[in-house]
Amino acid sequence: MVKAIALISGGLDSALAAKVVADQGVEIIGVKFTSPFCTCDQRGKCYARSVSSELGIPLRTISKGKDYLDIIKNPKFGYGRGMNPCIDCRIYMLKKAWALAKKIGASFLITGEVLNQRPMSQHYRALKIIEKEAGLEGKILRPLSAKYLPETEPEKKGWVKREKLLAIKGRSRKSQLRLAKEFGIDTFACAAGGCLLTQKPFARKLKDLFEHREEVGWKDVMLLKYGRHFRYRNSKIIVGRNGVENNMLALLKGPDDYIFEVPDHGSPITILQGGKNNESLQIAASLTALYSSAEGEKVVVRYGTSTPIHSLIVNPMTRNEALRLNIALDDEEADRFIGQMEEDTNLRENF
């Protein structure tokens, strides 16, 4: 039996692509790529695993490594609307999937890409660039749009029949939803994409991290997912929003980072990274006071490297001042949020 690897994201398109080929008698092995940027898994549920189980195919997981961070920092084909190097990312995953294919004897790759669905990476020219750069011309079958694309090796060799492949293109999902009902597929996620790199607030935080730290690891990236992030000169300040984030910040802080809290009050955990001088200590402490439940003009804030043992008495920072330091916002957004702040409770809580 001919064997193929299908890239399974947990979304509907990749599930349908695998199903269309599996129904032609090809043995399918699913591959899921993971990284801290993926938001496909929701509330602890792995949709890629659920989809694979529903389709009756085994699933392997590949974690994107440090080499992937290097690609994000310097993508050959540039970014989308955020820090998302979609073309470079696709090339990276296909190369990794093909390396696995060669180990297990798979003859080709399957993806759920739909022609013209995504503006950066799924137009015709981008698909051809991806194939060429990955060294996989003719070895990538895209079953959902196959009839709009040149014949691939699995079609030419008779492993799959072209007449049983599909002709879907564009951003409408009506055809996919109809097929999902026909095939009985009802477990899927990420209909609009699931990558933090496409989200501008997160992208700004990642860009700031690359600009201020030469060596960036996955632990640094994980920290970007928690808390409010502020920049003061060469100092980075992260303030937790709730108990879960406080716990994660305490867990992920580096050995040289300072930790802040307001004793005897509801208080965020705050982390100070980078430069540590009187000014940055005051800024970190005043941000901690702002987001605590302490009232009054003077607030006692404790800080230290592992345990808060030193004390500072500070004025809580104003919310407007905090917005100006917030890395996730550009100047225009900060101005707009300052105008909305008095009326919007959600903005006050999150920024």
Description:
The protein has 351 residues and is an alpha/beta fold. The protein has helices spanning 12-22, 47-55, 66-73, 86-104, 124-134, 153-156, 174-183, 200-212, 218-223, 243-252, 278-290, 319-325, 331-340, 345-350, and strands spanning 3-7, 27-34, 59-63, 108-110, 140-141, 228-232, 235-239, 258-261, 270-274, 299-304, 310-314. The protein folds into 2 domains: 3-196, 3-Layer(aba) Sandwich (Rossmann fold), CATH 3.40.50; 199-350, no CATH class. The strands form 2 sheets. A 6-stranded antiparallel sheet has the order 6-7-9-8-10-11, sandwiched between helices. The chain has a 5-stranded parallel sheet with strand order 3-2-1-4-5, with helices on both faces. Helix 1 (12-22) crosses helix 7 (174-183), helix 4 packs across helix 5 and helix 12 (319-325) runs antiparallel to helix 13 (331-340). The longest helix has 19 residues, at 86-104. It starts with a strand and ends with a helix. The mean pLDDT is 92.
Short structural description:
The chain has 351 residues and is an alpha/beta fold. It is 39% helix and 15% strand. It has two domains: 194 residues, 3-Layer(aba) Sandwich (Rossmann fold); 152 residues, no CATH class.
Total number of distinct structural domains: 2
Helix fraction by DSSP (H/I, runs of at least 4): 25-40%
Strand-residue fraction?
15-25%
CATH fold assignment of the largest domain: Rossmann fold
CATH class assignment of the largest domain: Alpha Beta
Shape: elongated
Number of helical runs?
14
